[in-house]
Amino acid sequence: MSAERQIKAKEIVREIVSGIGDYELMHKYGLTHKGLQNVYRQLLDANLIDASVLEGRVASPLNTTETTLASRLPRRDVYIPLPVHDFNNPEERGIVTDISERGLGVKGLRAEVGEEKILVVKASKFYQLKSFILKAKCRWMKPGDDVQETLAGFEIISITKQELQELKNLIETLDYVNR
Fold first, then answer.
1. What is the pLDDT of residue 60?
2. Which of 21-35, 144-158, 164-178 has the highest mean pLDDT?
3. Is the pLDDT reported for residue 85 higher than 90?
4. Does domain 76-177 have CATH number 2.40.10.220?
5. How many angstroms separate the CA atoms of 8 and 160, rounded?
6. Secondary structure (DSSP) of 55-91
7. Taking Cα atoms as reference points, which of 74, 175, 75, 73 lies closest to residue 127?
8. Residue 47 φ/ψ region, left for φ over 0, alpha for ψ in the -120 to 50 degree band, beta for the rest
9. What span, in angstroms and rounded, lies between the C-alpha atoms of 119 and 156?
């Protein structure tokens, strides 16, 4: 039997308004992505927070329509290590091998075809960019002799406008570096 966690509304509203991000809130309160969405929905329903404050947040119930990246975009190869990890399981790490606005190839990160993951792309100091988060679905997986050799292709199925801009900044930087 699981106990429901009590979160003080005034405390979390104060933190949201002060600018604390979704993932920091999830970590602090031990919430999943859906759990934080539920908290936001309850705050909205109780008129404890204005919808405009939640606009653009990854877990915002206002942001549940997934961004569709319809055009076929070429992938950029990544030659300098670009770490990525599973947000819900940070010890599950890999290296981005190629990336586009539609998806990314990853080496060393376990995934099953059809599995959805929230991925954190850790832009290195070399790229001088911010890390960003996206939700992706594993479309293919090629097992290796060990986990480090496993290759997987992920389709981006949800990303906020702000995170998409960070992804575009990375791609622009890769275009420059790969010349």
1. 54
2. 144-158
3. yes
4. yes
5. 27
6. TT-TT-GGG-SPPP--S--PPEE--S--EEEETTEEE
7. 175
8. left
9. 10
**Residue 51 pLDDT more than 80?**
no
Four-CA torsion 101, 164, 59, 62, nearest 10 degrees:
-100
Domain ranges of the chain: 9-63, 76-177
Q: Which of 2-11, 14-23, 61-70, 128-137 is least confident?
A: 61-70
Q: Which of 44-48, 52-56, 86-90 has the highest mean pLDDT?
A: 86-90
E strands within the chain? 76-77, 83-86, 89-99, 103-107, 116-121, 132-142, 151-158
Flag whether the pTM goes above 0.85: no
- The neighbour count for residue 83, using CB atoms within 10 Å, is 17
Q: Which two tokens stand for residue 156?
A: 């981006």
